[in-house]
Amino acid sequence: MRLPFCWICSPVDPHCCPTFRKSWNFPESPVKATAFVTAIGVYDFFLNGEKQGNIFFAPGWTSEKRVFFHRYDLSGKIAKGKNVFSITAANGYALGDISSHHFRENGKCHFADHISVAALIRCTFSDGSEKLLSTDENWEVFSSAILSSDFYHGELCDLNAVPHKLCNAEKDLSPKPKITAAYGGCVRPRERIPAQKLLISPKGEKIIDFGQEIAGFAEISVQGKKGDKLCLSHAEVLDKEGNFYTGNLQRAKAKTEYVLNGENLILHPHFTYQGFRYIRLDEFPQEPVCLDHFTAVALYTDMKQACRFSCNDKRLNRLFNNILWGQKSNFMDIPTDCPQRSERLGWTGDSQVFCRTACINFDVKNFYDRWLSDMALDQSPDGAIPCVIPAVFNGNISAGWGDAATVCPWEVYLAYGDKKQLARHYPMMKKWVEYIHARALNYGEEYLWLGDMHYGDWLAADEKNELLGSTQTDLIASAFYAYSARLCAKAAHVLGKDEEAVYFDTLSKRVRLAFRKAFIKDAKLCVYKKADGDPSVPHNNVYSRPVTNDTQTAHALVLYFNLCEEEEKSIFAGRLAQLVTERGHLTTGFIGTPYLLFALSQNGYTELAYNLLLSEKNPSWLFAVTHGATTVWERWDSVNENGDFQDPDMNSFNHYAYGSVFSWIFGAAFGISVKETGAGYRKIKISPHPDDRLSQMRISKRTPNGTLKVCWKKSGDRFDYEITIPKNTEAEICIPGQSSQIIRQAGNYRF
């Protein structure tokens, strides 16, 4: 929709969050009225002092190429006579500290240097006539009670401040991004979690524990004297002594402050959110502190939970809840990496490894469609994909991160079966693979991606404190080269682009052949003595480290990406099992973890995969659970056995990447997989792999065709299965010890 928006801004610095205001007299109440509103920054839109819509942080993440507008139905709300329209705006994504990530020169923000707003109000009257009202230089700029607001640092609100006119607005003629209708969902308030405990720390701090880490805000009922202050700090964890811990927030202040006006109020911030389980009452005017006056409100983008899981092991049930909360906390308009520190960016690698799990847990079709369109906008002309989307800063163009451009569109297609959506993102998929091909040619080996700087197997546990892990980054890059080319071939085939399908299939096979020659000798993985494998060349300068491909991650990639011959799989799987057994735990990082358990269970080591899933030994998924985690940690050892924290410069307690393990529980333990010939769960395979340690497991998954359920229960020395097949679904059922069968009739089945 092309609307004649007129941008306006304040010609003076308001030194607060400005309010743009205009009143109109209506001879009659319009029978229909719609407002279209957007901003460079974030805003709340008001009619006669009442906020319209239940959206937070509209219009969402701003790009230098695109900004969204939202619609507000004002029908029946505009009265005859005087009506006041107003927009209060804050720096938000476009101008806040989040937009100057990694400290841009002179503190310059990435997308803009001042707040701008634009609005249209279209009214239809009883006689059929229409009137279009617009922002222009006749709007007035007022101060507001919100003195400052920033995603990282929090919000300061003086409830005694009397709004006063600063000036008239002026038309903003500076370059602006394209305005388009919002889609993909909005951030809204969701769960409300009452305070659980009031704690007094050894330092004497008053701390409220909500019992669950969320991304959102604390809502507080309070009354104090005029001029009293209410100051809150936010934290994910307490230290081992029980003191409030904010050392991992980097430069984020994460504070909310109010100057009270003497009235009984319910308060929450307007234009910020924090990742927290605990709040500290730095200043609080009431004694005693009443827990009933504190509520944590979770914020996240529109998405309905699509999966339910339970079993007889309470630890796994808690792990599943942690994974859900990690996704809720980080699906904040875009898929962020974490919600608490001074980052909260759309890291592509995190999303790439978690995308399949995300599509299992929630309905995220539209969410990913929007974010992948952001990715296409930020893709370089040569096909490179920035490491964060929207592209706030320039990090490495990295394998496993840029491959979100192929992996995510394909996983979303398998989950929902929308060919049109796949077609929209296919050009981006192609350009990414063409970029890799060009980089390979640049190094002189057309079918190996060598020599570039990558994030490797990020935060792997095979070498202590080596961020990249010890797996050769060129092996990882070349493995993803083959995988992404193969995904392009599959997408081209689905879209009827037969010549392109043949091209990418051939490219993938050639990369696979080159990979085998470089990294496999005598059915063993070896280091290719070039680029990252050349010990005389420190890779990435500060990331000089021991390099070996005799790692769990390297073997998992080779097996899962089918980079070895069929007759070699038992050898590689055996070596992977040996590596796991010798170490007694997993050692994979961001890149290897999503594939590790699959590589084991698909090659005869299902029991060993369960051993890893059920282990409480650090590193493991359940180590965090048994140490009180309510979300998924960024590092396996975010907290050590003795209660000490990892490096505060990078130690989030709410990252979703390692939550990708749920795709194995879904796809291997329950054995549910979507066939490529029946995307959107039209054709599925159910091949459960139960374990004696789990006597009962149950899952239900809402699919485009209805609800799919799989349950097993141990009865004596056998397992009984109950399976519910939704309508319009062809299911291949493979029960252990029984012949496979095809079921095309919806219903409940017992085996």
Helix content: 10-25%
Structural class: alpha+beta
* Shape descriptor: globular
Strand content: 25-35%
How many DSSP E strands?
38
Number of helices: 14
Runs with pLDDT <50, length 5+? none
* Spatial separation of the terminal alpha carbons: 54 Å
Major beta sheet, specifics?
A: 10 strands, mixed
Write down the Rg: 27 Å
Mean pLDDT: 95
How would you explain this protein's 3D organization?
This protein is an alpha+beta fold and 751 residues long. It contains 14 helices and 38 strands. The strands form 9 sheets. Strands 11, 12, 16, 17, 18, 19, 22, 23, 24 and 25 form a 10-stranded mixed sheet that branches. A 6-stranded antiparallel sheet has the order 5-4-7-2-10-13.
Nutshell version of this structure?
By secondary structure, the protein is of the alpha+beta class. Strands 11, 12, 16, 17, 18, 19, 22, 23, 24 and 25 form a ten-stranded mixed beta sheet that branches. Strands 5-4-7-2-10-13 form a six-stranded antiparallel beta sheet. Strands 9-8-3-6-15 form a five-stranded mixed beta sheet.
Characteristics:
single chain, 751 residues, alpha+beta, ten-stranded mixed β-sheet, six-stranded antiparallel β-sheet, 14 helices
